Description:
Blueprint: H1 2-8, H2 12-17, E1 22-26, H3 28-53, H4 57-67, H5 71-78, H6 93-98, H7 105-114, H8 117-140, H9 143-163, E2 164-168
Helix pairs in contact: 3-4, 3-9, 4-8, 5-8, 8-9
Amino acid sequence: xLMLMAxxxxxxxxxxxxxxxxxxxxPENDREHLLEEMRGYLVYATATLxxxxxxxxxxxxxxxxxxxxxxxxxxxxxxxxxxxxPPMAEQNSAQAATGGHRPNPGRFERMRxxxxxxxxxxxxxxxxxxxxxxxxxxxxxxPLHSLRQLQRVQEVCVACHNAYRLEAxxxxxGSPPLTGVGxx
Length: 184
């Protein structure tokens, strides 16, 4: 309790001075889309944790399939090469969890242009790890194996949240895509 009170008494300006995460500026609607995606993955992770703890491996597999990580799109997004037209038929995790919205074809290119490549690579790593959870759930039929896989998924999430912070605004259209991690 004392620790919480001490943290609450720190002026906001003092907390801002210790911020080391790289800012990632996105248009407001793209930022909200990405935050919605993150919330969808958090819902997935929580439900998967509960199912694995109960040994419900069919549910673990179903949850991973429901999230259906769009791996082909994520691979294109993560690449540093020329962009190919991504398939638009797949739903993202938040769409699967909430009943879906129509895809925004311009968003993909904006995200690719505005998100640092290490961020995009972590998105791909997380999606591939979720696909592994679903693939292995029934093949291994081992809740502990699934929990270890889910831990790796969440380690990627924690690393990304420790490295980056999302900000709403207009990215500098004249700048090349961000490629590194660190202080601005």
